[in-house]
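User: Could you check the structure of this?
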Amino acid sequence: MLIVYEVVLSEGGNADGLLSREVLEETKAQIMTIEQARAVGLSHGEPHAQGLEVRLIAVSPHEARYVQSRLESSHGVQSFRAHEVP
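Assistant: Sure, the predicted structure tokens are below.
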């Protein structure tokens, strides 16, 4: 099972700054565009109604809480929601 966070970036937000390199290495999280996620079989995520950038972050359930805490404290994130993927 995976947890996939659907993340809407703030206006002017930078997807490269969502998670630090250290967090990515420690958690093995993968950040993808909607198109990249669909290419690997994930069906979550839709383009944002106001045209804001959306990224999907796939992570193991064990690391999900840590990644969520990083998203909650990020100024580049407008909103996010989690999806469980079997």
